Amino acid sequence: MASDVPYYWIDSTSALADVLGRHRDGAPYALDTEFMMGRTYFTRLALVQLGWPDEIALVDATKVDVSILADLFDSDALALTHAGLNDFDVLDAVVGRRPRRFFDTQVAAQLLGWTMPSLAGLTSDLLDVTLDKSEQRTDWLVRPLSDAALAYAASDVAHLHELRTLLSEKLTAQGRLAWCEEECATQLQKRRVELRVEQLWWQLPRADTMPAKNQLLAQRLCAARDELARELDKTPSSLLGDPAIVALLKRPPRSVDDVFKAAGAKPAHRGFANEVVAIFKSPGDPATLEKPPSNRLDDELTPLLNVLGALATQRARDLDIDAGLVASKNDLTEYLRGGDSKLHTQWRRDCLTNDLDRLLRGDAHVSVRGNLLAIT
Q1: Is a pLDDT exceeding 90 seen at residue 1?
Q2: CATH number of the domain that residue 236 is part of
Q3: How large a percentage of the chain has pLDDT more than 90?
Q4: Can you give the residue range of the structural domain that contains 160?
Q5: Alpha helices, H only, the chain
Q6: Do residues 170 and 44 share a domain?
Q7: Are 101 and 143 part of one and the same domain?
Q8: Is residue 2 pLDDT above 50, yes or no?
Q9: Is the alpha carbon torsion for 375, 175, 72, 48 positive or negative?
Q10: What is the pLDDT of residues 123-138, one digit of tens each?
C-alpha cells in the first residue's frame, strides 16, 4: 500500500457500514487504534484506522458505533497490525471480540532478528520511508483533529500491507512463516490480567515483603482508592500515588494534613484523605487479607534458572531472533515449575524447549565452545 492512498474521515455508523460493505471480499486489512489513557480511570478509544490497498478509513470512535466491526473481525479476512495486542485490549471492551486471524509485523520482525522494532523503524529499514512521528502526543479525543494528526493516523496503517509482503517473504525463506503464524495465534489468546479490587495492593513496591499489618492496610487503601477513582473516572494515582501509600504505611497519619503531606505534589482528594485516616484507625479483619502469589522459585533452583536464561539468550542469538520473544525470565520460571509456559508452543519447542527438556532429563549437557554456550 503506497503512502498516497486516500484516507477518509468516518464520523457516522452508516458511513462505516458503507466502508465495510465495499470490503466484503475477505481481503487483508490493516488495523490500528488511537486511544487515551493515563488521565482517566477508563481507557477511551478515540480512533480506529482501517486500511485496504485502495482506501484508508479513519473512524471517529467518539461518534461511531464501532461494535459493527464485529462482522469484519469474525470473518476470515486477515488483520495486519503492528504490536496489535495493545489495540486488541482496547477493542475488547467496545467491539467485544478480536480479529479471528492477524499478522503482526512486530512479531514477524522479531523472528527475523529485530529487537522490539517500532513501525517507523521497520518502514525505514525495509521501505526506505520515513514516518513523521511528530504527532505522537496528540490528544486524540480533541475534535476536529488537525490535518497533521489525520496524516499521522493514516500512516500507521498505510504501509502494513507492504511490510507484511516483505516480512512474509523473508520468513518463508528461513522456514519461519509457520512460527510467525503460531505466535500470532497464541498472542490472540492473551488477555490483560485484571486484578480483583482486593488484589490491587499486590502492585505496590515490595508488597510481598511488608509486615502482615501493613499488607492489610495496603489492601484496604488500594481498594478504597480504586473505588473512588472508578466513581470519579480519575486515575487512582491522581487521588494518592503508590509512593504516598508506601510512605503512609511507614509513618501512619494522625490527621488529614498528614495524608496531604505524604501526597506531596499530587494532593489527595479530601474525602478520600478522611477515609485514609479512618482506615489506619481501624485496619480491619486480618482474615480478609488476600496475599499475593509467590513468584519466586526455591532458592536452590535459582542457579538453574540463570543457566536456562543464558542458554535461551544464546540460542536466540544463534538463530538471530529477538531474545525477548523467545523466553523471558517469567516464562522460564513457569517452565521450571511445570506450569503453562509459552515455552510449550511448537515453534519454541523446535528452536529451544526440546533441548531444555533433554537437559533437565539428563540426556544432554551444557558445553562451552569458544565463548559460546551450547546444549549437546
Answers
A1: no
A2: 1.10.150.80
A3: 84
A4: 7-188
A5: 13-22, 70-74, 84-95, 105-110, 119-127, 147-158, 160-173, 177-188, 212-232, 236-239, 242-250, 256-263, 270-281, 302-319, 323-326, 329-337, 346-348, 354-361
A6: yes
A7: yes
A8: no
A9: positive
A10: 999 999 999 888 888 9
